[in-house]
Amino acid sequence: MELFRTPAEMQGWADACRREGRRIGFAPTMGALHAGHVSLYELLRSRRCNAVAASIFVNPTQFGPGEDFEKYPRDEARDLDMLRRAGVDAVLLPSVSDMYPEGSQTFVEVTGVSQGLCGAGRPGHFRGVATVVAKLFNIARPHVAAFGEKDYQQLAVIRRMALDLGFGIEIAGAPIVREADGLALSSRNRYLEGADRTAALCLSRGLFLAKSLFEGGERDPLALAAAVRSEIEGEPRAAIEYVEARHPETLEPVTLPSGSVTLLVAARVGPARLIDNITLHQGGQQ
Ligand code: AMP
């Protein structure tokens, strides 16, 4: 596995791959890797990518004041080991000053789909995400880029940005990887200890409850969201930020009975802010 510390080195690698006719797959991360991240590289291989690249960069512009930028888990040696074992060909670990040259003035802002949900509670977050992903796309020059459905709104923001800015990159969404007990894997799960770890299960439990109601014929999105909400409200250690029923593609609110709906939740459990979601399709999977 090639290890690059500067964008220029990664660009050189990407250009060489393209000259050789290789198909570049890329998935950016903030490190503290887990099986959810590894699934992105497997997805890229399954999409016929024969040059697979990763980045590890804790992006300061997507953290708000008072958020966990400083204490975000960092574990470079372990991450590199996981990427190597996942068969990744190249990894970029850039510095903040390489990603944001002194005096940076250029940012990418995706409007509609960035608003509401996490965009409401984390102002500026998706501007930071869109900006860093646009930079990384210019550096890794992928044909295909993979993002997890765990960050459902982020995936929608990236799809919109890639289309609007004409990147010509295929955006692949990867299903949520969960622990055996249902908890969606997240680097921030490291913040959960003892009773908080058990309490965190209320998010997935609420979503799975809604799934079984949907399978039983409930099509009212507000009733499904209310069921998720009451399950989470039953857990005293959890504080809900939002529970919403949205259209799976546009992320517009849905209020009328519908054959497909995405339920999205964000809640704080102890020191961790957790998100999760599920998409329910009539006659479909998930
Ligand atoms: P992060 O390192 O948290 O910025 O995440 C990097 C990428 O991994 C994003 O595309 C996430 O959506 C994806 N990801 C994180 N957790 C999971 C998960 N449990 N299942 C699938 N993808 C995930």
Provide a descriptive summary of the structure in words.
By secondary structure, the chain is an alpha/beta fold. The protein has ten helices and nine strands. It has helices at residues 7-19, 35-46, 76-85, 96-99, 118-121, 125-140, 152-164, 195-199, 201-215, 221-233; strands at 2-4, 24-29, 51-56, 90-92, 144-148, 170-174, 238-246, 260-269, 272-281. The strands form two sheets. A six-stranded parallel beta sheet has the order 1-4-3-2-5-6, with helices on both faces. Bound molecules: adenosine monophosphate. Residues 29-30, 36-37, 39-40, 147-148, 150-151, 174, 176-177, 184-187 line the site of adenosine monophosphate.
Bound molecules: adenosine monophosphate
Q: Radius of gyration from the CA trace? A: 19 Å
Beta-sheet strand percentage? Answer: 15-25%
Task: Report low-confidence residues grouped into runs of 5 or more.
Answer: none
What is the chain-wise order of helices and strands?
A: EHEHEHEHHHEHEHHHEEE
Shape: globular
Q: Helix segment count?
A: 10
Describe the sheet with the most strands. 6 strands, parallel
